[in-house]
# Entry
Amino acid sequence: MDLTTFTTSETMDSREIAERTGKNHAHVCRDIQEMLQQLGEDESNFGSVYLGGNGERRRCYHLPKRESLILASGYSIPLRAKIIDRWAELEAEATRPKELSRLEILRMALESEEKVQALEAKVAAAAPAVAFVDRYTKATGSEPLRVVAKLLKISERRFVKFLEDRKIMYRLGGKLTPFADHVEKGRFEVTPGEANGHAFAQARFTPEGIRWVSALVGKLEIAAVAA
# Structure
């Protein structure tokens, strides 16, 4: 009979308790039943079965540390020490770093290499776009949000959500307005305007702001691939 079939780092099998204490397994099961009854515990939460040598299904129990130590408290000091020592072994095994198989190591290496290749491909694909943005901003002045979205090949709605989620812009009186720190860093220029008798402020990305937001978008996309 294999005494380690049900033993894990979370529970101790009643058969192992019997083996380590030199007690009859049937007597250990009886002790467990009496203990659970006195504790008001549902026996079915701890019970299991195993196949005996003749293929017969037999009863056994899996006790967590608390219940196994309560059980041991009714045994002699030498027997109690054996159960306590076994729990120390189980807890040490649980904290010991898992030894990876050669297949697991190869699989991890392959996944890592795939991520590196995907990242390199993303960087290479982004390089022409970054160069284009740099040339564009050198040749033009400030631009409205709609133009910058087209430059970055992002839908205007998605770009607006990106700016709001990243706390770059917010809505003020229905108008997208940059946060003050981004204006102070020269990423936006805000000019006053008037329409239908109502004054408003129009925000435009400066060349520096276009370069900055395009680099930010590129970094986030690359990070998503690397994650």
